[in-house]
Amino acid sequence: MLNDPSTVRITGDETAAVHRRVDDVDAEQRPQDYADEPVAEAYVWSNLTSGNGARALWLLLLPFMVVNLAHWMRPTAKGMRRAVSVYGTLVRLVALTLTVLLVAAACEVALDLTAWQCAGTRACAEDRSWLTFLAPSESGDGWWTQPGRRLALAALLPAALTALLWYLSQRTWSAYESQQPVPHQDEPEEDGSRSALSRPGFWYGRRLVARLRAAHTAAGLLTVAAAVSTSAARHDRGADDGALHAFGVVLEAVLALGAVIVVVVVCRRGRSESTLDEHLDRVVRTLPVTAVVVLGLAVVYAAWDRPDWRSSGRLPGDETFGVIALVQGLLVLALAAVAWLLHRRSAIPGTVLGGVGGPAVAMLACALGGVMSGGVAQRVGDWLDDGGTPGVDGTAFPGPPVVLSWQAAVIPVLLVVVLLLAVILVLRTRQRSRLEIDRVQSDYAGERPDPERTRRIAGTRARAALTDHAPVIVGIVSALTLLLGATALVGAWGTRKVPGEAAEGTPAFIEGVADTTQALGSWLIGFGFILFVTWGRRAYRDPSARRTIGILWDVGTFWPRAAHPFAPPCYAERAVPDLTWRVATWTRQTGGRLVISGHSQGSVLAASALWQLSPSVRRRVALLTYGSPLQRLYGRWFPAHFGPAALMSLHREVDCWRNLHRPTDPIGGPIGLPGPCGPDVDHAALKDPLAYGRTESQPLPAPILGHGDYQADPVFAEVRAGLLARLRPGAGSEQRHHCPEEAAPAPELSSRAGLPAPRGDAAADASGTVDPRQGSSGRSSG
Length: 782
Fold this sequence. Notes:
Blueprint: E1 7-12, E2 17-21, E3 39-44, H1 46-49, H2 62-72, H3 81-118, H4 122-126, H5 147-154, H6 156-177, H7 206-237, H8 242-268, H9 283-302, H10 320-345, H11 357-384, H12 402-443, H13 451-464, H14 470-495, H15 508-539, H16 543-556, H17 572-590, E4 593-600, H18 601-612, H19 615-618, E5 621-626, H20 630-637, H21 639-642, H22 644-653, E6 656-660, H23 677-681, H24 714-726, E7 751-752, E8 755-756, E9 759-766
């Protein structure tokens, strides 16, 4: 970044820090040496997003991250505060169902498949020495052989999983997101169209995250308590022990009351962004502790002596997964209705899927959660059943709940549709590539024709345009997932049979197809889960794999945890305050001006940091973005925060803003501000490659750079020099809303305490790709 082998950290720590060249460390004490050149700094925040290989485990929480994105995708809404509140509440409820689904899947594996079914069957347990002490034997039953005690012991696994999620959420908040933002000055703002990212409490959501963490932890523990105690309560209804029966009824009532309280806590309050809210509610401490007490009572109740109790079939409560899927579908439909109303009120052209992008993404989060939980249950069931298909091949091992088998059966259908979409995209890309050939020849007119070179450039441009088809793909897959999920629910509840079970009057061909799809889907979701984990681990070792998931990861972990507290931590709650504090303190101490340049995700961080500055400081800053997804991705998917009004306000309030982009870039693009401001911000598309054939300056074939190495283009240096020249005190500030570099007046020096005021050049390169010299997935400079 600094183009110098000798650098030094001037502020920050090992996680994120600001660096300078060794020769520039004391630049403020030698302003005469920097009269004609800037002081370059680099802000490095790669350890916030990559770090060591253990971070790959965060990919297991991908559904939580995706549903958190849905919260921020709501359409713009002016004067509809109630609808905005309903939208946020519905997303938080969808997130709550995902936590319950994850813990229920752990209960299905530990309690139902292992402790209830396998350990309750002598043939299954005898093949596994680690289960023999739980299984009934011919010589007499031991203490652990009673079903309730087996369930109580197995409950340790899902309870430990819930505790681990709570611990990770608490620890990551303290490590990454507990940074105090810059105190806002009481200065008048120019207008009210600025993004919500400028609010004082936007990057400090401690109160909401703590409330949600308490509620989700309690929901997980109550789910475990219900799984342990429900079967015992059902047994006691037909037993002679009235005291146990009464205790079971009271415990079920307490569980129901606890579920209501959790839902109320989740629904009652959203984010408080207008102020820096550090007050923690009493519920943060009392709710998880109360849930632990209830779980302890449930374990004691289930472990009580019941000599005549035997386990058979599936664990009672296997309808849970169907109920969760139904609730998720209804919540997504309600969310889509609210999003459509919001978009209809103040529609922004280009918003993905007509404003229902958030509900579509929430549906994908539910689908990911279902596939991951179903995949684990199916694979464990197959393993315990010695490789058979539980519930289908006529064995005594019933396997996972019926609804999971039906969900597995529809997976092949979904994959066929996804494959068809991929084929259509390939055909459209080839068609676009042929159209781009004429544009390439026009851009490099006068060059000696090289058909292969032309096709390669045209193909790169066509593939870069695939990003713009993502909304359509997300919409189709989400709608199909909702339809197939409803089909699976109807099939599971209508027949109470797994797809491969024989039904009276069913043709043999239909039975064979159902059996094949169920078995294939079971293997596919299990294989997909394993592939997902291994790919995530590889992404932190292989730079090429890291590029593939870098885009989603950078976008997903940029946003605060507003819907799900167990989502991966938000790196922007550390990076944005870092940049804001650096800019604010440097300008206050030196009286200087600076350029913040940001590449890819770094441009989003730069814009977010500028919104947090006071108006007087923003007027001393110029912004240079390149390869920026501010409009192409963020403006379309997150219109309420990066819509045209917000970007227009940013353009008006900074000294100047210039944006560079290429037609071969799959991530970045023009900002596209409406009216006369658009050409002021967006430079004409840069040529890529810089040279078509071999030239005096490029004797070897020039590479197609795509999303990277914007600094290699001479235009980058010209635009940067123009911005630096504009920032010289007295250099035409009356034209600061128009940015023609060639019109900048000759610079002149001004003094502060008798010395020239310094200028800073802040570069922020935070692409999702890897710089081999850095060995990290994110780089930034400030």
